[in-house]
Amino acid sequence: MNRSILIVICDFLLVSMLAFSSVDINNVSENGVAQTTKSDATATNQPESGGDLTAVMRQALEEERRNREQLQGELSKARQAVSQRDQQVENFQQQLQSKDQEARQLEQERANLQQKFAAAQTNLQSLNQQLQATTTEAVMSKEQLAALQDESRKRTEEAAALQAQLAQLARSNQAVLAEKQQLTTQLQVAEVEKRSAVEQAARMQDEVKVEREEKARLAEGVKALASKSGELAKEIQENRTLTPNTIFTEFLTNRVQARFLASRSNVLGMDASKHKETETVLVSDGTNIFALCHVQETPLTLWVPGTEWEGLTGTLNHDTAEVPIRSLSFFWPDPRVVLIPITAADARQLGSKVYRISPNPYKFQDAVLVGAREGYYGQCKFQVDESTPQYVKLDRSVLKGLFGQFNPSRGDLVFSQTGELLGVMANSTYCMMIRNFDASATVQFGSDVRTQHTGETLSRLYTFVSGLPFRLQ
């Protein structure tokens, strides 16, 4: 072969291989813009007040309850939305991790292909150098030239295949980057929505807290109003005056019959028992319950010498109910008033009304006097006597509303105009006010009371009464 022709062929092959070996790689970057959303919601709800304060409070409480239930529902929805956004963010993060791993794998394959491509180029350069050396020396045979041409063609085909693979990897990498950018944008949007949902949930929690505080304040207001209403009703009840007819009718319905039997034998051995009956009422100071009457309505007599009784028995009766008398106490500071204690169970068994002691006996100047045995009653005026602070004096010059043979005497019951027990008439002019149930002496009832020396007790109490001012005796 002519040497010049061989040089031309080698130059043509060299130029062809250099044309196929050029590679351009373009990088594409995209920028995403995250958009945020804002929400603003305000609500005002102001209840209007009405004429009836209690109705307004109840309506306000009902409206607050509905608002609280609505806010709680919205809070549950907001929390559910936050949970869904958290799940979406977690999914997006997992997808990003997967795409990052795929991108790293593609980048590794691309680096490997580039290395192979570089090795192919190095082999091509080596072959070109060999071809050039062979051309220069012009000693290469046709078989060697064909082998070199075949090897060069194979290397060129390999380079083209590697180039195609690089292009495919570039396109795949670009698609992965685009998908990654899309996921990043979605993640940013989800985070913004999550923050918005969290802020909304926080606002709703604050609103619920405010609603609860407002409801608590309203409840306290209603409670205070109810308390004041109860106090007002109690005050009205305490200051509501009753007519003498009403008080006497209540007395007739609730009076209790007290029966006493005192037994003893006289010096001749004959029975000298004494029986007494009277009508009275049950009275309470809020803790203890007593039936009370004047000592003259009992078999016991304050005298010197006092009677030594051997047995004392008695009962309290109302309708068909009957309870025993267990003891009898002499009131302090006036032993002419006797107290008969009973239990709450006894009071329930008798079924009679239990009167309250008047907490303020000076609230009304007028009172209602009831003759327990004689059946008369009337409205009377009582005056305060500074020399006897524990008594009030009946003003006989002012007597009105009299019914029956009105002749006030000791043992009559005195009621305030509100129906509470004021006291017991110690004599025909002075009323002993009952403010407590203090006792100066007590006698236990039973078939044998000789060990209690009733005569000594009665004599001592008589001496005490004799020492009172003459107008009180």
Summarize this entry quickly.
The protein has 473 residues and is α+β, with helices and mostly antiparallel strands. It is built from six helices and 16 strands. Helix 1 (3-20) runs antiparallel to helix 2 (53-137).
Layout of helices and strands:
Layout: H1 3-20, H2 53-137, H3 142-239, H4 244-254, E1 256-263, E2 274-280, E3 282-284, E4 289-294, E5 311-318, E6 321-324, E7 327-331, E8 337-342, H5 344-350, E9 354-356, E10 366-370, E11 377-384, E12 391-403, E13 413-415, E14 421-425, E15 430-433, E16 439-444, H6 454-466
Parallel strand pairs: 3-9
Antiparallel strand pairs: 1-2, 1-5, 3-4, 4-8, 5-6, 7-8, 7-16, 10-11, 10-13, 11-12, 12-15, 13-14, 14-15
Helix pairs in contact: 1-2, 2-3
Describe what this molecule looks like in 3D.
With 473 residues, the chain is of the alpha+beta class. The protein has two domains: 214 residues, Helix Hairpins (Orthogonal Bundle), CATH 1.10.287; 229 residues, Thrombin, subunit H (Beta Barrel), CATH 2.40.10. Helix content is 49%, strand content 20%. The strands form three sheets. It has a six-stranded mixed sheet. A six-stranded antiparallel beta barrel has the order 10-11-12-15-14-13. β13 and β14 form a beta hairpin. The longest helix has 98 residues. The N and C termini lie far apart (174 Å). About 6% of the residues have low confidence.
Overall pLDDT: 82
The domain tally reads: 2
- Mass-distribution shape: rod-shaped
Write the H/E string, N to C. Answer: HHHHEEEEEEEEHEEEEEEEEH
The CA-CA distance between the termini, in Å, is: 174 Å
Going across the major beta sheet, what is the strand order? 9-3-4-8-7-16
Proportion of helical residues:
40-55%
Structural class: alpha+beta
Biggest pleated sheet: 6 strands, mixed
Q: Unreliable segments (pLDDT under 50, ≥5 consecutive)?
A: 22-50
The portion of residues forming beta strands comes to 15-25%
Count the strands? 16
CATH T-level topology of the largest domain = Thrombin, subunit H
Task: Supply the CATH architecture of the largest domain.
Answer: Beta Barrel
Highest CATH level, the class of the largest domain:
Mainly Beta
